[in-house]
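Is this the right way to post structure tokens for a design question? Let me know if I should format differently. Anyway, here goes:
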């Protein structure tokens, strides 16, 4: 019984100390489980397909958007999402579930190749000979590639 009293006394003393110290500590916690990122794109972006990648990448937008296997993919803060339309709604996806075409390349390489190919596309748009497409508003994954002549 004495042992139990000592344990209870220690517990209450420790709890009181923690509360006294916690009074000076601020804790803020935001948890968004499965929250869809807010993506606002004024106009449908152009998606180009650099031969070195094997899938489409969006150019001229502030988001890292990709198109493969009839879905759009978005990477924000090392978190991946997919959607049927380039403007969402976005659903979180594990990296392992991304199409192999995307996983096959390092993210930094994808961005570098995208930027170079988009510069090529915008520099000589009327003579661009690569594959590209412009999705319509709320395109449901039916964007078809076109080769510019």
């Amino acid at each position: 019984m004495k042992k139990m009293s000592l344990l209870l006394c220690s517990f209450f003393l420790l709890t009181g100390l923690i509360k006294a110290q916690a009074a000076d500590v601020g804790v803020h916690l935001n948890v968004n489980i499965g929250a869809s990122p807010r993506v606002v794109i004024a106009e449908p972006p152009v998606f180009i397909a650099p031969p070195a990648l094997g899938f489409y990448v969006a150019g001229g937008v502030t988001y890292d958007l990709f198109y493969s296997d009839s879905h759009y993919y978005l990477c924000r803060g090392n978190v991946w999402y997919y959607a049927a339309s380039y403007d969402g709604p976005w659903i979180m996806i594990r990296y392992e579930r991304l199409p192999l075409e995307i996983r096959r390349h390092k993210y930094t390489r994808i961005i570098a190749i995208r930027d170079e190919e988009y510069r090529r596309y915008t520099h000589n748009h009327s003579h661009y000979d690569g594959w590209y497409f412009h999705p319509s508003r709320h395109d449901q994954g039916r964007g078809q590639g076109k080769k510019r002549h």
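Format looks fine. Someone answered above. Worth noting: The helical segments are 2-22, 100-103, 107-123. The longest strand covers residues 71-76.
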